[in-house]
Amino acid sequence: MGVGTMVFIGVAVVVIVYAIVIYNNLVGLKHAVSQAWSNIEVLLKQRHDELPKLVETCKQYMKHERETLEQVMRARAAVASAQEAHDVDGVGRAEGMLRMGLGNLFAVAEAYPDLKANESFQHLQSRISGLENGIADRREFYNASVNANNVRIEQFPDVIIARMFNFKSADLLEFSVEETADVNVGALFQ
Description:
The protein is built from eight helices and no strands. It is mostly helical.
């Protein structure tokens, strides 16, 4: 074997090893996105299971606030439907509706001192607030994972391996304008 052949073989081995490293890194990023989404789904399911208990507790006190309670339950159903369809954008929109509904519900509850003093309500409100914080944390981690994945599959030379093996970009979990807007507490009592 000549020197030229050995150099060619050496370069080929380095290129193959480099391609394998890129491929393995892309696989790791893809699975990090899946894991981050699964973490969000766990918290969404827990909150999904807690909301009917909260609404039922509130119904006992808030006889005149049916629309607020129904808004929460409609939003809950929309989140579950989008989650089952693996529709990240749909989850984002439905989450915005649900968070707004919960904000309205907790604001309206201020007008019911007996409800606010109810141990079950306090527990559920605390539990759901904790889940909301957990979802926000997991959403941030999910979006960071998605961003890392999407950047890597667009960068050279990773883009070559990504296209060869059909790696796809993932969607960020974003929320609607309604969710980021302040709740008009005064309007809730009119």
